[in-house]
Amino acid sequence: xxxxxxxxxxxxxxxxxxxxxxxxxxxxxxxxxxxxxxxxxxxxxxxxxxxxxxxxxxxxxxxxxxxxxxxxxxxxxxxxxxxxxxxxxxxxxxxxxxxxxxxxxxxxxxxxxxxxxxxxxxxxxxxxxxxxxxxxxxxxxxxxxxxxxxxxxxxxxxxxxxxxxxxxxxxxxxxxxxxxxxxxxxxxxxxxxxxxxxxxxxxxxxxxxxxxxxxxxxxxxxxxxxxxxxxxxxxxxxxxxxxxxxxxxxxxxxxxxxxxxxxxxxxxxxxxxxxxxxxxxxxxxxxxxxxxxxxxxxxxxxxxxxxxxxxxxxxx
Length: 316
Known about the structure:
Blueprint: E1 2-10, E2 19-28, H1 37-40, E3 45-46, E4 56-57, H2 61-64, H3 72-84, H4 92-98, H5 102-105, H6 130-144, E5 147-156, H7 158-168, H8 171-186, E6 195-200, H9 209-215, E7 222-226, E8 230-235, E9 238-243, H10 250-277, H11 288-305, H12 309-312
Parallel strand pairs: 1-6, 3-4, 6-9
Antiparallel strand pairs: 1-2, 2-5, 7-8, 8-9
Helix pairs in contact: 3-6, 3-10, 7-8
């Protein structure tokens, strides 16, 4: 048996709302480099949109979700995957706890718009179908000899993100450290099982050996190749790939969906909070130009509530 691990992020660019990084861990038969998880999951999922009630679209979140499409397809895939792990979150807070996120674990990191409020789940998809989909998916996994072992996320709110960026003096470096520490929480570099880790590239970075060394306690990191398209390393029985368009790989695509789902739910609660404070306020997705408009619109309410900029606004 081997391990396939995929990692992705959502919310790196915005000024408002959280950065979400997610890792998914799959146990597969044989060598993970040679195993086609798309083929193994073909009976339940593909990258294409579907109207079949018991099939899933697993792809880059940009293909699955847009404001016009709504959350249903995203929600369907994410909640079905969590059901494979025996997790049935009924609210955003429970989802955060299931993913071992900072929202649930560090109360000092909870921003005002999450205190004393929650969001019931699911928001759009018919919850009665989740169990049936998960049953079909589990059968598919058993036939292929595949097991989903973990889905874990790091939800980084603006205050913590700002502190990390100041500490690193570099936004991309902060993302890399957050991501690799999350990876380390699910990956044992001393595991003798063959393991393949696939991550999306972080900004324009091509070298990751020094960052890997930070989280590996002086273990040997061997650079196999480093280029703009893909940087590959070996640590023990593990191969790590940082590549462009990593969402073409099933474990990364699912991680992408989880990230996007958590961020969109978080922004829904964020917008709801501020709409209660400012009449007629137009919601925001948090990206730079519109985020500046939103920030100006809530400035008076922000001052009235005593919410400092560091809690609200990501500096970079």
